[in-house]
Design goal:
By secondary structure, the protein is mostly helical. It has eleven helices and no strands.
Length: 253
């Protein structure tokens, strides 16, 4: 099998979150900006690094503001809960088409509808966490006002069962009712992946710029990559400090 030589295989970066990736990129770009003139052979990769950093910063800002796309699992659970609430609402509304004088159950259906959907289904268009909270209020109303038995008496047990399952799954997908491992949203993850690619290419380009016969090139590379080399050394420095502060075996002091 042929070996693959690419920035991804040649440059090993420390494990980083999207935020720490952005911070390292910012430090590298700051180091490059301190140089009076960057060699033309490095400028293009520096520009790519700048562009990737800006995109990552934008997506991180959107994540902080609660914008951007929800995770696929959340979107799927959201659609299921939207459908469950919509189905229950439509079913309750269908009772209004029956003559109340011949069907006393119409009054019960109206009671449930008014308790849950007096303001319509607009809450289903809110941001995921806000929508779940509004849905949770309605689920609690079903329990507190004993609406479940009324719905079942009207023949709506399948609608209620589906709603309970959908709401539980939605809460789990959001990590509200059940803790889930933290994961970067897909848009942020994609931006970080592109940023890491640009970062590897930049590091490789700077390293390749070094000429043994020209010490100045090595000095430039050392300055440009200092944030990365120091980043890697941070854990070792802490370990070294700890070992230096520990008593030396066999010491008389």
């Amino acid at each position: 099998m042929a070996r693959s030589f690419s920035p991804a295989t040649l440059v090993v970066l420390p494990r980083m979150t999207a935020v720490s990736t952005a911070r390292l990129m910012a430090e590298l770009l700051e180091a490059a900006a301190r140089e009076k003139k960057l060699p033309a052979s490095l400028a293009a990769d520096r520009n790519d690094l700048t562009a990737a950093h800006e995109i990552l910063q934008i997506e991180l800002g959107r994540r902080t503001a609660g914008e951007g796309d929800a995770a696929p699992g959340v979107r799927s659970a959201d659609r299921v809960e939207d459908n469950a609430f919509g189905a229950l609402s439509d079913w309750l509304l269908s009772f209004k088409r029956l003559p109340p004088e011949r069907h006393p159950e119409v009054a019960d259906a109206e009671l449930v509808y008014e308790a849950l959907f007096r303001q319509g289904l607009g809450f289903l268009t809110l941001r995921a966490a806000d929508e779940w909270q509004e849905a949770e209020i309605r689920m609690r109303l079903i329990e507190e006002k004993a609406l479940g038995p009324v719905i079942e008496k009207l023949g709506g047990k399948p609608f209620l069962d589906e709603l309970v399952l959908a709401h539980e799954a939605y809460g789990e997908a959001l990590g509200i009712t059940k803790a889930k491992p933290a994961a970067e949203p897909p848009v942020v993850g994609k931006a970080q992946s592109a940023a890491l690619d640009a970062l590897r290419s930049y590091v490789l380009r700077v390293a390749a710029y070094v000429r043994e016969s020209e010490p100045a090139t090595a000095e430039l590379a050392e300055r440009l990559l200092a944030p990365l080399t120091q980043w890697k050394e941070r854990p070792r420095k802490r370990a070294a400090a700890a070992s230096e502060s520990a008593p030396v075996s066999g010491s008389n002091g």
